[in-house]
Amino acid sequence: MQSTTKKRVVVFGGGTGLSNILRGLKRYPIELTAIVTVADDGGSSGRLFDQYNVPPPGDIRQVMAALSDVEPMIEKMFQHRFEGSDGLKGHSLGNLMLTALTTITGDFARAVEQMGAVLNIKGTVLPAANQRITLHAELEDGSIITGESKIPLYGRKIRNVFITPQDVKPLPETADTIKNADLIVFGPGSLYTSTLPTLLVQDIREAILESAAKKVYVGNLTTQRGETYRYTASEHVQALYDHAGAPFLDAVLVNNVEAFRRMHNLAENEEPWLVENDLECLQALVPEVFVQEIASLIDGTVMHKTMEVSDLLMRYIERT
């Protein structure tokens, strides 16, 4: 008799890439948890931290919107960003609501939980820590850059990233959620400023390495100036391993670059710079490599196909 126990899926990262994947995964009868970076220091998030000393809500807001099950207008309102020239300029309503709830409850994680109930989210959202994390990067010339928003501006190769405070603790339930997962998914998103910051929290990193869950990295589609310019797929994976301290992935899902170029009549030497699949190197790092047509081109932006990626992840978990 087949078990009716729901599969437990944990997804790491931040930003638009993670949100796209979650929109697909929330359709499935699974126990879904998103563990989201709180290292953002730019724009609305940075200003709210400076004024109210709350962890940056921007990535959390995007993930909650992706997991919400409310009327489309409510989600659109939650994501609305104010324009104009007054003090509200640049702030999104969702960021302000999370800041208000943090002030009311006195606790950011509690505010996220309460907002999740308001938005009727499908799953659980856990900030990587219940306080702001500051991200630093050591560049190839040895210089140190402080601040997530500043790191991509220097245009030099990143040697490694690290966080302060280094002894920051995740929420008490986070480690158990990771250790009890059936599938752990990393990315996609900005490698050094969205995906890696969660891995740098020691208790989270140790829980990932100890977990018996299958671990999959959904590869980025394009390289990013200031972070991963002209990185190959294996270089993305190697950066994950270097910061984790050990190889830990069971599989990687990458786009069929050749098919994508043919479909959209793109030349190799023109932007967007697609992540090249150096398969021989990739297969030496990861036991299973899946090359699939998982990218679309929308208004000049290369994006993951939400439903195709989530379907592939679900088929993978069902056979493991």
What share of the residues lie within helices?
40-55%
Quickly give the structural class. alpha/beta
N-to-C series of helices and strands: EHEHHHHHEEEEHEHHEHEHHEEEH
Mean pLDDT across all amino acids: 91
How many strands? 12
| Largest sheet descriptor | 7 strands, parallel
Strand content: 15-25%
Q: Rg, please?
A: 19 Å
| Form type | globular
Tally of DSSP helical segments: 13
As laid out across the biggest beta sheet, the strand order is 3-2-1-7-8-9-10
Q: What ranges have pLDDT less than 50 throughout 5 or more consecutive residues?
A: none
What can you tell me about this protein's structure?
The mean pLDDT is 91. A seven-stranded parallel sheet has the order 3-2-1-7-8-9-10, sandwiched between helices. Strands 5-4-6 form a three-stranded antiparallel sheet. A two-stranded antiparallel sheet has the order 11-12. The longest helix has 14 residues, at 306-319. It starts with 7 loop residues before the first strand and ends with a helix. Helix 2 (43-52) runs parallel beside helix 5 (93-105) and helix 7 packs parallel to helix 9. The chain is built from 13 helices and twelve strands. The chain has helices at residues 15-25, 43-52, 58-67, 72-79, 93-105, 108-119, 172-179, 191-199, 202-210, 233-244, 257-264, 279-285, 306-319; strands spanning 8-13, 31-36, 124-127, 134-139, 144-146, 158-164, 183-186, 214-218, 251-255, 288-292, 295-298, 301-304. The relative contact order is 0.14. Strand 8, helix 10 and strand 9 (251-255) form a beta-alpha-beta unit. By secondary structure, the protein is an alpha/beta fold. Helix content is 41%, strand content 18%.
